[in-house]
Amino acid sequence: MSESVGSTNHLTRNQLLVMGELSKVDGPLSAYEILDQLRDHGVRSPPQVYRALDKLVEFGLVHKLESLNAFVACRHPGGEPHEKTAFMICENCGQVFEITDDSLTKRVAALARDTQFSLTKSTIELRGICRGCQAA
Amino acid sequence: MSESVGSTNHLTRNQLLVMGELSKVDGPLSAYEILDQLRDHGVRSPPQVYRALDKLVEFGLVHKLESLNAFVACRHPGGEPHEKTAFMICENCGQVFEITDDSLTKRVAALARDTQFSLTKSTIELRGICRGCQAA
DNA sequence: ATCCCATACGTTATAGCATAACACAATTCA
DNA sequence: TGAATTGTGTTATGCTATAACGTATGGGAT
User: Fold this and answer.
1) Is A115 on the interface with B (CB under 8 A)?
2) Which of A15, A102, A107, B119 has CB 3.0 to 4.6 Å from A128, enough for a Cys bridge?
3) Backbone angles phi, psi at A44, to 5 degrees
């Protein structure tokens, strides 16, 4: 059993702990918020958290929100690569909505192709007020 | 002469200094890089730079690159609002290409509309290798 | 002119985000 | 078994950003 590239299986202890924290909340958490939650469980220093986060992002289980310097658990069931996610971030309630819009993805890809830009990663983060918060 | 909302005119001294630094380089600069450049001109502390940057961003003269924690001068001639810019960032040479693609903009707007998300600002940053760097 | 107000300034201190570098442990696999 | 790789824990440090304070400045309105 060689369990190749980027599998979601057998996360290490720290990775599991970090993933657990991100999974049990609805919104994003900063690395230091995660650290604070995990002090009881033996996690004591930033590098421990950042290392776990790096791997989880690499595995596609977690996304980094650049405009927030924070991290969210990926809400996609499967473990597909899908590095083409966009986010809507509510500036009122803090909720993050993960979206994969095919035509948006395609438009971005086309844009890159047209300019002969070899795309590695796309960061798309939309800020605003979500439906629920507008009602309220 | 009332010089209303968000005009690009009569920037303050610090704003001009910061704008000057951003204008004379081709790529993005961090706030602290700007600060270092301006020490000779009497700028001594981070808040001075950050305050200037905040205003310049507000005026639409400068963009913040969230995925880089850095700032670039806007390359659009006019002073239109155009908060719908996207960026391609070359991970090899560091150059930043500012693009305004109407159909991308529209797609984002449609996405927001469909989910009844009231859009305030969109951050679109594409990472990869630019045409020039691929050739080399 | 004078007062008011809004905006900008300068400074100190501190908060918040992230990584370098080192030594050691565990795991894999030849 | 031993080499290579990956993960761990720790200390220290660097980079990014803002809070909070007091002062200055410049444009109305009266």
Assistant:
1) yes
2) B119
3) -125, -15
DSSP conformation letters of chain A = ----TT-SSS--HHHHHHHHHHHTSSS-B-HHHHHHHHGGGT--SHHHHHHHHHHHHHHTSEEEETTTTEEEE---SS-------EEEEETTT--EEEE--HHHHHHHHHHHHHTT-EEEEEEEEEEEE-HHHHH-
CA closest to A100 among chain B residues: B111
Taking only the tens place, the pLDDT of each residue in B100-135 is 999 999 999 999 999 999 999 999 999 999 999 998
Domain that holds residue B66: 13-135
Q: Which residues of A touch B89 (CB under 8 A)?
A: none
Kindly determine whether residue B127 and residue A108, on different chains, have CB atoms separated by under 8 Å: no
Q: Is residue B71 within 8 Å of B28, Cβ to Cβ?
A: yes
When divided into structural domains, chain B yields a total of 1
Q: A96 with A89: CB under 8 angstroms?
A: yes
Would A47 be classed as within a structural domain? yes
Whether B1 is covered by a domain: the verdict is no
pLDDT band at B2 (very low <50, low <70, confident <90, very high): very low
Pick from A97, A126, A130: nearest CA to B108: A126
Contact B125, A126 (CB under 8 A): no
Exposed, middle or buried by CB within 10 Å (0-12, 13-18, 19+), for A102?
A: exposed
Q: Positive or negative, the Cα torsion across B34, B36, B41, B47? A: positive
Q: For residues A83 and A121, is the Cβ–Cβ distance under 8 A?
A: yes
Pairwise CB contact (< 8 Å): B127 & A122: yes
Domain-located, residue A125: yes
Residue B2 domain-assigned (yes or no): no
